[in-house]
Amino acid sequence: MxxxxxxxxxxxxxxxxxxxGESVVSGWGHGKxxxxxxTIQQQDATIEAAISREEVGSEIIRFxxxxxxxxxxxxxxxxxxxxxxxxDASILxxxxxxxxDPAFIGQVVETISVKLFNLETSxxxxxxxFIKRFESSGTSYFKxxxxxxxxxxxxxxxxxxxxxGRAKTFAEPxxxxxxxxxTPTDILSYDRSKIRAVITMSGGKTSHAAILARSxxxxxxxxVRNISDHIKPGDEVLVDSDKGNVFVHPExxxxxxxxxxxxxxxxxxxxxxxxSRPVYTxxxxxxxxxxxxxxxxxxxxxxxxxxxxxxLVRTExxxxxxxxxxxxxxxxxxxxxxxxxxxxxxxxxxxxDIGGDKIPQFFDMPQEFNPFMGWRAIRIFLERKDIFETQVxxxxxxxxxxxxxxxxxxxxTLQEWIEAKAFIREIASKLEMPMPKCGVLFEVPLxxxxxxxxxxxxxxxxxxxxxxxxxxxxxDRNNSKVNYLYNPVEPAFLRIIRNSIKVANxxxxxxxxxxxxxxxxxxxVLLVGLGLRRFSVMPRSIPLIKEIISNISFAEAxxxxxxxxxxxxxxxxxxxxxxxxxRLLGDLMKRIPYIETGI
Length: 599
Ligand code: PEP
Ligand code: MG
Known about the structure:
It is a single chain. By secondary structure, the protein is of the alpha/beta class. It has helices at residues 56-84, 93-99, 102-115, 119-135, 140-163, 184-188, 208-215, 227-230, 252-259, 263-274, 298-304, 328-341, 378-383, 385-398, 414-430, 445-449, 451-454, 465-473, 491-506, 524-529, 542-550, 554-561, 570-591; strands spanning 17-20, 22-25, 28-36, 174-181, 195-202, 220-222, 236-240, 245-248, 279-280, 286-293, 310-314, 347-350, 404-408, 437-442, 460-463, 511-513, 534-537. The chain is globular, with a radius of gyration of 25 Å. The structure holds phosphoenolpyruvate (PEP) and magnesium ion.
């Protein structure tokens, strides 16, 4: 079969099925199911499975290399677990046994050299054979070995996707089915232009994977129960995330109905053509709408969508699909590419926010029970200054002649910030370069609640609402189970935001919001009312946000906002907000029915 999915094209007509899930990123998409995660049944997972005779040798060498990598990783895991002595790590020895099993090695080598399948397909094919044999053996011991085989197979395959540095391509549009928590690598490892939607077991609206998906306009739905009982690799799937529906083997008329839905795209294109210029409220207050970006190509998107600058470069994506820390040259090339495309506008580069759900494969990260509360961002920076010296030096060199600044994530205390800033200054003076403007990403409660004390030490502030909400509400941003607590319109949260904006405005320090909250059109009037003058959002959101801003009066929005002091519950706040939008944006909402959902 063409794109390597298992063959489901038997002549029998497949029964259409409809499943329910929760919207993580809105929109709809249609394609063939492509499984990621523990899905050993998926034969020929790589799209171009065939290799030439000349490639046989190098595939076998790669096989030995990745077996070595896997063995080292398992040994390290065993050591870590032994140190913690919470579990008996010896059970992991079974994985090493599989890696060294002559039958397994022999069959993979044979499949590569006789069938001329590439390495990934060969590993999957042989693993499948083993599993079938284990499962038909009848004994519980062998049945359990199947899950070990799945583990080893997926482990080996994971090195392949990360080592080539190239995204895998698909021959036709796909819907990714992620049988675990959805991660940024799931999007970055594949050709994005072919990913039409994602169905995932778990994942919150502001998880990094969701943020990436949203910026590439890929709808995501989560919480579909027993996915693999209903969808098989290669099945035709249509996802409507707005309504929370997944259609498996959809009827032709259902697909047709969706294909005709182009209204949102038409409006988006109209607004995009209109908003390459700056935006002012009706009463003449200039509001900047900046772009968030991760990859160098996103800088083009930012310019095309009329960004007034770049408010956040998430530099840790520079680390994805790499085998080791980027060199200064690699850093330099990345910043130069972004700065040169930025049309001479200001650009804020955030130091690498390593940790949480962004852990490079090569980075020796200790096992953590609470990675989001653990060793992350500035906490790593202050301990591993060598790594960050490379990054800061490259930013300073690339920034020469450009208007740029440096932002530090996850700052908790003023003392940390002062130490980080002193280190940046030290590098600048070593290189005899001017000290750039430096600011704090306020995303830890302790820091934002004491924002006033930071004021004389920072050049600018930005609020990272994605992390801030999760820390204030103790609700994991990646966990759809606790999504009900994770809400930007919680009254207590809005009051904290209002105070922070006031502190920055009173001190004459520019402040932006760069979390996902700022990019949702539902919140635009609210944030302007709270006094925000700088939004930083994914490029695709810029035109609609500007259109909304141009339709409101700053004074009128500010006047309405005093109401948030008397609202006690999130539901009441949401009802009030929808009402406020209807009152202030009535006509616009009729013309553009996407203010509550986003385009
Ligand atoms: C945030 O936390 O709001 C933020 C902008 O950073 P990230 O989403 O990359 O953690
Ligand atoms: Mg953050």
